[in-house]
Amino acid sequence: MRTKNFLIIVIIALALLFAGCTEQPKETKIKIGFMAPLTGSFADWGRSIQEGMQLALEDTNHKFNVDYQDDACDPKQGVTIINKFLGTGEINLIIGPGCIESLKAIAPIAEQNNILLFSTGLLDNEVFEKHKNIINLASQISTEGRYLASYLDSQKVKRVAIVYGTNPFGVEHSKTFPIFLKDYNIEVTSIEGSALDTTDFKTIILKVMNTNPEVIFIHQGEKQIGLFVKQLRELGYSTQVYGYYGTEAQSVIETGGEALEGMLYTYPVNSAENSPQKKEFERRYSEKFGKDKVPSATSFFVYDGMMLVDKAMAVCQSLDTECIKGFFEGRDYIGISGNMKFEKNGSITRPFGIKKIENGKFVWVTKKIE
User: Fold this and answer.
1) Euclidean distance between CA atoms 161 and 192, whole angstroms
2) Which of 37, 115, 82, 55 is nearest to 288 (CA)?
3) What is the pLDDT along the chain (370 residues), one digit of tens a residue?
4) What are phi and psi of 324, to 5 degrees?
5) What domains can be seen in the chain, in order of their start residue?
6) Phi then psi dihedrals of residue 298, to 5 deg
7) Contact in structure between 273 and 92 (CB atoms under 8 Å)
8) Residue 52's closest CA among 145, 156, 138, 113?
9) Residue closest to 163 by CA, chosen among 113, 231, 114
10) pTM for the whole thing?
11) What is the distance between the alpha carbons of residues 295 and 52, in angstroms, rounded to a whole number?
């Protein structure tokens, strides 16, 4: 009997030993692509997108292996990157690009290969008419322009000059913003384009000021916005300057300095501004990336986007791009970036307000524009 019991104990021990030696299955990581301008005129913004993405990955239930790539807002670079992604045979979902020129260059390739794109930047309406594989996490250029035109009307502004960078973001603003201004009988006194690497704006400033505008709207690279306003003030002009939401970047402050005091700009209204979740995100952001680092609006956009991708994959049970796209279509969601509604065509609706630069800080003027 004792021998029998001993044999039973030996068998159990061996079974446990071999069970412990058996290789356990590894948790599968889902590979996705990422594309943003990590260098160039919009590098601060691009890095804020990457950093928002990195924090999101700490909170998702699914585990993701992200291939981070820098497109520098260059469409040729964007095409090279998506072809690299295709070469892996594993990537069906890309976060980005943030720049419309890159997105337009890669969208046909992505569509042909059943790849879903989550844009992190402003888009024009044409993108959604041409392509069915794009979901916007940010907003549309036309939305921002409509809000600003309405606000200028409320301030009794009647004459506006437009200065823009000759990239697709700026060009689209230069085409659509005058249409919205016309709806309020606001005259556009001049429209002046300049390259994204422009450093001397004095000639453009003199041409613009000869048309006697009440305000100037500028859509340029981060450093260029600061340089433009600084040179405007150096020439002795006190004309009010407005910008777009990309104005909220540290490099704008670094190049423009005190000259930026009082500059106004559009910015997405965040209904979750004072929520514990947003405050915790901001705390983690500063802790991880530097105590002086502040997330951009797009940091919040990409975080919410990844949280929704994570939820979609729980429903879809796989990286089924049609199923994931269907999950987003028509969905209302409140995240750390506030209220958003994903339309069936892939566009998104967000409200905008007005902020200003005051003592080197970005502060709200109004969160409600009628």
Assistant:
1) 8
2) 55
3) 444 444 444 444 444 444 444 443 345 789 999 999 999 988 999 999 999 999 999 999 999 999 999 999 999 999 999 999 999 999 999 999 999 999 999 999 999 999 999 999 988 888 999 999 999 999 888 888 999 999 999 999 999 999 999 987 788 889 999 999 999 999 999 999 999 999 999 999 999 999 999 999 999 999 999 999 999 999 999 999 999 988 999 899 999 999 999 999 999 898 898 999 999 999 999 999 998 888 999 999 999 999 999 999 999 977 789 999 999 999 999 999 999 999 999 999 888 999 999 999 999 999 987 6
4) -65, -40
5) 30-139+275-350 (3.40.50.2300), 142-270+353-366 (3.40.50.2300)
6) -75, -25
7) no
8) 138
9) 231
10) 0.78
11) 7
Tokens 């919009």 belong to residue: 42
